[in-house]
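Postdoc handover notes: sequence design on the structure in folder B. Input tokens:
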């Protein structure tokens, strides 16, 4: 069968009805283009660097290294053979740069003197260029631009080759001159030194991490901190900045679009090339792969099945169509560029709009085609040997870069020349009502097919145009209307782009000089492309009734006919793409068809097939010392496999502490490195001792000291492994261990005169020997026991003698035993190479804020600022190698102390609190698990012990037993047995007995459930409603795929609609039901729902607070509001804390903020346990940090506090002393004036004989002016308002708060206060001669309250006999006494009847209402 595949492919190519090379010339753009492509390909493909491209098993580092080697080889080929190729960056130099800038930078780029990239996209912004945050501020004095990325989201993100490769970048940044922004412009920035390739000062660069594809390119990020560049490094072809800071704008901002639109045109040809490769692989493989007998005895080729033809042949047609469109758009671009040179912009807008839509449509078409071709290859399509997967992963990004596709469609729709709002410029409405197709022959006519596509596009454009106008007519502004029309706009842009591709394909074929045979083949493909689109998008074409179902039947018959005509030449059609095997990189798509032999050979060469053992082979290593080979490299250790990591298994930790002389050095007044290390060890052990949960105190520790004068370890003999002592074997940590750490660890030799001698006697292998002893201890102590993790923590400044000839042996030992290594002490991560070593250390992530020399010196300083010795530098280099090989980690002493300063709890075991279905209605149930996400941590309960026992000679465990007894309240205090007790409920003065049987009967028998009651907008849930003692996270049941899919859909739906679910939650049978809310949460790794409890009615507290606006003095000014806003901004926590590197970071993150109360408790308990007679220590400074704002925040907000202090008149008011001579004159002095000016109305004065008496009170002497009536004391406020002197405030205050109190009252809660207000209004109206005001008010109230809401209050008015003011009460009234009395009687019977009806209705409503749902939630019920 393997040989048959070769024969089959040969037969496919025999006697083609056309010249294959002629189609190749058509595909390339002409014979000359084919010749150029082949000549360049031969130079590359014959080069051994490219022939060795077997990338399937490469690491990311190997992939990148190979790409750099290939780039270097391409540069050589270009120079040696004077090859002229297009450079993408040239477009920007030529399009945006002045002639002087072009003459300087283009040669440097083309000769590979510099490598450059384009930096536009930021971490927080992409296509929206105007929203970029990177700034370029012009310094007029120095004539320089200062580049900054002021925020995290301003970080440049995604530029290709930025991480490790390029030397320069074109940076898009906002231009600022004299505090004014002039929008985004391009700037030339040198990223790396041309001498040593290090980042330039102020620039931080790095790799953004692994990607789905294109991992040969080091896409990077970049941050800039006050990076200065000269004036001439702004590209100024169109807009300019002069030396004095004058900005000269471009004549037309659209001139900047040229480079990007040109590259989008080139992407059409590139995307055609990717689809050509996938089509070639799939068609060739399908032509040799045989599958399933169609009829007995004959197993046909897969390509003979019409289903396979339906998958592949349309993509062949799409490939040829895309390359035609690409050549057309490049020609279009050249014409537009020629016009641009003469400042003619007539084609630019059209070119931009069409190219944006085509870029989006073509990349989506290609990505879909790549995946369909891969699946058409069956099971082998999933293998890397297929080659399509690699192509797909790389080209998938094209839907995003150079403009995200949805944005591109919208830009295309927005363009006036290709947009829906100007359809006549490109399309015209068909004159026919129906498609003029009657038979299969009609479907071969170009104009007939184009008419269908033109009509579809036209109708899409008309629909969206009409929709936008309708929205604007109903009140939407143009931006809102455009946003609401987004989906229709995208559909319209797609329809136009689709039409453009089909039209251009036919037009290119018709205008070509091809032979008749080639023209026939391409015409078939064009017809297939058009008909396949109609069939695939039949809904669109049928929608306008231009095409009917009879037409669609003919289309599908014709498609099958075309498949039959294309099938014999399918292989020749893809051969015309002329893609070599070295370019194709596919075994399935080999030109010779020998796929099975080569696929088997390829599989045998995989790394896993190099050995037959399931255990990895040890790496080659140098011959170890004899003593290492006897203890570390024994066969049983090297071959030992690490225990599988078990969930929640205990940990074995060996701490290796250097107590050598170099650790004891410290300047006066500072702690030595040994003292600091001992403190860190104490913190590590303390965290384990005070850990809580199911694994508390199960982890085991051992302590090894090296650099000691004595030697005490299992490997010590014959002078080997000396000066190393195992002072604590592996075991659980306890207080004795903590006491030893605090009191018994001392330097190896405390005599200063002997330090140097002792130092010289230390073994050169001391540090590595200590690691070997620790590994041996772990191996022996954990053998046969279950430990999840094994770890060695090494504390050392590497000041002891050091040798590095056992690195590989130690590395293999650590790996084979599954031991994790952590080094604390040296700044290994930030260490640079020696000054004499100019090689790159591989750490491209660096920040050069100063000259390299000063940076290097800074990093060569020790913990106390002392110069590192050459021995320390060599030791750090050796340990760095070990850590890299075993994936270990390292920390400086400073960072370790800040990390370990808390008695952190052990992580809680994931235990479900609910397992069951999430019920939505009666039909939908989603199996879920619920876990506690957040709950307040409670301190451990205190044990009750006997103080008497503690003071005795034999205290024992001091435990006490608590016993409780019950007695009658009589003289004898008669004891009652517990079983004879009963509960009672005090009901008035009677105690109602409550037996156990009653208690059980009273309980609500609720079944376990989690059921959705309804959905509501998240904004309807008030923050103060969230209650309960924690948050529960809900996830789909493990290994339940249907549940996961349904659950994910629910979360996504809630997220997109901004809604939440209201649920009834009973976590187990007969437990109390809870009302709760489910919030959607979408993370990068999972989706979940967060449950938070909601209150019932009884849980809500109703309070009424005084109005602050009642007094104008309480209302701040706008300036005062701004000052408080500034203060709040200055106390922003996102940049409130400065880390060890001096960078401002976010403070008080909950996941990083420990409870100071708990930490203080642990600190005191530990101190009391270790020092029972000493007083408790002061509060730890690290804990103190959480109890006060950081110094940085305090310094920043200090000036704002001062401004607020100055703005607000804050003064100390001293309490006045009582007057000893309190006379009537002094007390009533002010009231004399008040009485004189109380009422300026003659009418009111006439009817107010007691004004002075009524208006006066002692409290009124000090009362401030009332500006508004509040709800706390509305009567007093009303009286104070209408009695203010020099003002007539009656009209303003007459209605005061009566309506509000009645309407806002819950039940009759506020009715008494409203009645007081009504009575007060009546009294004041009588007093001031305004009866008409009250009578009208009362009449309005009767009309509004007697029929509907508030009738209960009206009944109170009737019962209180509050009627109209009659003529006897006020001479100004026109209401008789009889009319006033009848006013209330006329509504008594009617109101009472209606009230009875309402009571019945309300009772019925109460019985049927859902008391689980708060009334204020507007639920979208199912």
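Designed sequence:
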């Amino acid at each position: 069968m393997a040989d048959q595949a070769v024969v089959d492919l040969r037969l496919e190519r025999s006697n083609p009805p056309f010249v294959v090379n002629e189609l190749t010339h058509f595909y390339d753009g002409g014979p000359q283009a084919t010749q150029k492509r082949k000549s360049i390909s031969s130079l590359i493909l014959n080069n051994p660097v490219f022939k060795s491209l077997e990338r399937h098993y490469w690491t990311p580092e190997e992939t990148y290294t190979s790409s750099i080697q290939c780039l270097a080889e391409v540069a050589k080929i270009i120079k040696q053979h004077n090859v002229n190729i297009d450079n993408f960056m040239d477009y920007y130099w030529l399009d945006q740069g002045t002639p002087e800038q072009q003459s300087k930078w283009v040669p440097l780029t083309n000769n590979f003197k510099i490598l450059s990239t384009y930096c536009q996209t930021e971490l927080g912004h992409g296509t929206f260029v105007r929203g970029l945050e990177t700034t370029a501020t012009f310094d007029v004095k120095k004539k320089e631009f200062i580049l900054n990325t002021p925020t995290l989201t301003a970080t440049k993100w995604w530029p290709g080759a930025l991480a490790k490769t390029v030397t320069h970048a074109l940076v898009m940044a906002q231009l600022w001159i004299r505090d004014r922004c002039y929008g985004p412009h391009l700037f030339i920035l040198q990223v790396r030194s041309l001498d040593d390739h290090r980042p330039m000062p102020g620039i931080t660069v790095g790799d953004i991490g692994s990607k789905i594809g294109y991992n040969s390119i080091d896409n990077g990020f970049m941050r800039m901190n006050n990076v200065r560049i000269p004036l001439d490094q702004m590209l100024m072809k169109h807009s300019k900045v002069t030396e004095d800071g004058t900005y000269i704008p471009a004549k037309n901002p659209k001139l900047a679009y040229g480079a990007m639109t040109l590259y989008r045109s080139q992407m059409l040809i590139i995307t055609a090339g990717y689809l050509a490769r996938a089509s070639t692989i799939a068609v060739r493989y399908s032509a040799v792969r045989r599958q399933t007998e169609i009829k007995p005895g004959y197993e046909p080729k897969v390509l003979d099945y019409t289903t396979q033809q339906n998958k592949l042949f349309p993509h062949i047609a799409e490939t040829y169509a895309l390359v035609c469109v690409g050549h057309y758009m490049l020609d279009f671009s050249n014409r537009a560029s020629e016009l641009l040179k003469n400042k003619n912009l007539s084609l630019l807008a059209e070119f931009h709009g069409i190219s944006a839509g085509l870029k989006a449509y073509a990349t989506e078409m290609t990505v879909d085609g790549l995946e369909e071709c891969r699946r058409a290859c069956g099971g082998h399509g999933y293998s890397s040997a297929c080659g399509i997967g690699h192509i797909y992963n790389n080209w998938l990004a094209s839907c995003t870069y150079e403009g995200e596709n949805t944005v591109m469609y919208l830009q295309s729709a927005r363009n006036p020349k290709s947009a829906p709002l100007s359809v006549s410029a490109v399309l015209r409405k068909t004159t026919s009502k129906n498609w003029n197709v009657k038979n299969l022959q009609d479907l071969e006519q170009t104009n007939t097919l184009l008419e269908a596509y033109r009509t579809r596009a036209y109708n899409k454009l008309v629909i969206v145009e009409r929709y936008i106008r309708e929205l604007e007519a109903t009140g939407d502004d143009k931006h809102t209307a455009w946003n609401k029309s987004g989906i229709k706009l995208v559909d319209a842009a797609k329809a136009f782009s689709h039409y453009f591709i089909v039209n251009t394909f036919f037009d290119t074929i018709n205008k070509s000089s091809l032979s008749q045979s080639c023209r026939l083949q391409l015409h078939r493909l064009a017809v297939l492309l058009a008909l396949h689109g109609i069939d695939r998008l039949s809904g669109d074409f049928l929608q306008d009734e231009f095409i009917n179902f009879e037409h669609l039947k003919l289309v599908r018959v014709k498609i099958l006919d075309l498949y039959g005509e294309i099938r014999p030449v399918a292989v020749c059609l893809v051969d015309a793409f002329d893609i070599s095997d070295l370019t194709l990189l596919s075994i399935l798509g080999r030109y010779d068809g020998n796929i099975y032999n080569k696929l088997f050979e390829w599989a045998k060469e995989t790394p896993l097939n190099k050995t037959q053992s399931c255990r990895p082979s040890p790496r080659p290593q140098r011959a170890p010392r004899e003593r290492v080979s006897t203890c570390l490299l024994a066969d049983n250790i090297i071959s030992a496999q690490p225990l599988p990591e078990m969930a929640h298994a205990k940990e074995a930790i060996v701490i290796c502490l250097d107590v050598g002389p170099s650790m004891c050095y410290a300047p006066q007044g500072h702690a030595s490195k040994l003292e600091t290390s001992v403190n860190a060890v104490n913190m590590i052990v303390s965290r384990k001792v005070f850990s809580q949960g199911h694994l508390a105190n199960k982890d085991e520790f051992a302590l090894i000291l090296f650099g000691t004068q004595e030697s005490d370890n299992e490997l010590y003999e014959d002078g080997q492994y000396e000066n190393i002592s195992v002072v604590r074997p592996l075991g659980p940590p306890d207080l004795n261990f903590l006491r030893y750490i605090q009191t018994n660890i001392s330097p190896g030799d405390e005599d200063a005169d002997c330090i140097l001698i002792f130092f010289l006697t230390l073994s050169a292998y001391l540090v590595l020997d200590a690691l070997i002893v620790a590994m041996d201890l772990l191996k022996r102590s954990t053998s046969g026991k279950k430990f999840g993790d094994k770890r060695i923590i090494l504390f050392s400044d590497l000041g002891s003698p050091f040798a590095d000839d056992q690195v590989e042996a130690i590395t293999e030992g650590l790996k084979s035993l599954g031991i994790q290594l952590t080094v604390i002490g040296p700044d290994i991560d930030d260490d640079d190479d020696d000054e004499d070593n100019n090689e790159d250390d591989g750490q491209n992530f660096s920040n050069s804020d100063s000259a390299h020399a000063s940076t290097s010196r800074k990093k060569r300083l020790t913990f106390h600022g002392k110069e590192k010795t050459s021995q320390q530098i060599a030791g750090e280099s050796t340990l760095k190698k070990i850590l890299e090989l075993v994936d270990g980690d390292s920390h400086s002493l400073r960072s370790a102390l800040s990390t370990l300063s808390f008695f952190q709890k052990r992580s809680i075991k994931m235990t479900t609190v609910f397992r069951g279905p999430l019920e939505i209605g009666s039909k939908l149930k989603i199996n879920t698990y619920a876990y506690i996400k957040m709950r307040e941590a409670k301190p451990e309960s205190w044990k009750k012990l006997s103080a008497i026992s503690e003071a005795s000679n034999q205290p024992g465990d001091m435990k006490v037993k608590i016993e409780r007894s019950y007695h009658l309240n009589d003289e004898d205090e008669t004891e009652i047995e517990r079983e004879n007790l009963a509960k009672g409920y005090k009901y008035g003065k009677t105690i109602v007995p409550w037996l156990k049987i009653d208690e059980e009967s009273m309980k609500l028998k609720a079944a376990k459930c989690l059921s959705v009651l309804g959905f509501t907008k998240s904004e309807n849930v008030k923050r103060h409603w969230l209650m309960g003692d924690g948050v529960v996270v809900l996830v789909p049941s493990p290994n339940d795929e249907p549940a996961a899919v349904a659950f994910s859909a629910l979360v996504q739906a809630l997220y997109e609609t901004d809604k939440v679910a209201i649920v009834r939650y009973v976590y187990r049978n007969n437990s109390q039901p809870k009302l709760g809310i489910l919030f959607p949460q979408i993370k990068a790794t999972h989706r979940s729902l967060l449950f938070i409890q909601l209150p019932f009615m009884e849980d809500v507290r109703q309070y009424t607070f005084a109005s602050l606006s009642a007094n104008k003095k309480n209302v701040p000014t706008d300036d005062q509001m701004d000052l408080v806003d500034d203060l709040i901004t200055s106390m922003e926590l996102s940049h409130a804390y400065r880390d060890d590197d001096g960078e401002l970071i976010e403070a008080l993150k909950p996941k990083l903020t420990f409870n100071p109360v708990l930490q203080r408790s642990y600190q005191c308990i530990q101190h009391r346990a270790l020092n029972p007679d000493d007083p408790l220590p002061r509060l730890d400074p690290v804990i103190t940090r959480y109890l006060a704002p950081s110094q940085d925040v305090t310094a920043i907000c200090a000036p704002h506090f001062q401004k607020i202090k100055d703005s607000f008149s804050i003064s100390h008011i001293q309490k006045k002393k009582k007057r000893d001579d309190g006379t009537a004159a002094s007390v009533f002095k002010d009231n004399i004036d008040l009485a004189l000016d109380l009422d300026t109305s003659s009418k009111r004065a006439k009817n107010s004989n007691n004004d002075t008496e009524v208006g006066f009170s002692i409290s009124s002497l000090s009362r401030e002016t009332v500006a508004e009536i509040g709800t706390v004391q509305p009567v007093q406020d009303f009286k104070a308002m209408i009695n203010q002197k020099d003002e007539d405030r009656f009209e303003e205050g007459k209605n005061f708060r009566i309506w509000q109190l009645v309407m806002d009252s819950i039940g009759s809660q506020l009715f008494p206060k409203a009645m007081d207000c009504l009575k007060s209004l009546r009294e004041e109206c009588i007093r001031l001669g305004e009866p008409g005001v009250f009578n009208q008010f009362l009449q309005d109230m009767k009309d509004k309250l007697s029929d509907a809401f508030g009738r209960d209050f009206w009944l109170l008015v009737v019962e209180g006999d509050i009627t109209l003011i009659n003529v006897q009460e006020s001479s100004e009234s026109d209401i008789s006494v009889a009319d006033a009395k009848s006013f209330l009687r006329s509504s008594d019977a009617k109101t009472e009847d209606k009230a009875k009806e309402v009571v019945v209705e309300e009772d019925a409503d109460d019985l049927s209402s859902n008391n689980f749902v708060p009334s204020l939630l507007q639920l979208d019920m199912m």
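Context for whoever picks this up: The longest strand covers residues 924-935. Don't rerun without checking with the PI first.
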